[in-house]
Amino acid sequence: MTPRNAKQDRKTQDDRSEIPKRQELYQSFFAAANKDDETALQQLLATAYNAKYLDESIIRIGLQQSVRKGYAPSLSVVITWGETSGLIQRNDDLLRIALQDAAKLGHAEAARILLEHGAKTDVGSKGSSALWWSCSQPETPGHVEVTELLLTGKYTGCPADKEWTDEDGRTIFMSAAERGHFGVFSS
Q1: SS3 for 28?
Q2: What does DSSP assign to residue 138?
Q3: Residue 110 lies in a domain
Q4: If 0-12 CB within 10 Å is exposed, 13-18 middle and 19+ buried, where does residue 113 land?
Q5: Is residue 81 scored above 70 in pLDDT?
Q6: Which residues contact 15 (CB under 8 A, 6 or more apart)?
């Protein structure tokens, strides 16, 4: 075995020994995000960052869990670490998709935080926008509030595109009307 191959073999073994550590970190992170445990999230994100484990997967898990559960403080922690690591700047779909989830679920506070941190309101890789998701759900106060946030452009300086149409040619407001979501028309 040449010295170069021995070095590569050692690196491969080191990489394999890191897998259980990384998996344990992911599981702990998922559990903390699922419980809205800000302190644990902060510690786990710092550990991941220092161990060079912090990647898009961890940030995506944190964003998804925080948004889905409506945990605004945890969402802020995850975004801060995502910005610190540069991961959010390299992949603006991370915040765009989280904003679409917040809009779909009517989590206005999460939507506000995401918009404050630069989440894009335009159509994402899934072919829909946060405004479409907010308007296409059964009307709740949260959905109306998210719709207002998106249409005013208060946090982005640019209102969401209300002229967008889906593949069937329906506008956002047509989708809202079909679902009895009339509160958006006063926005």
Answers
A1: helix
A2: P
A3: no
A4: buried
A5: yes
A6: none
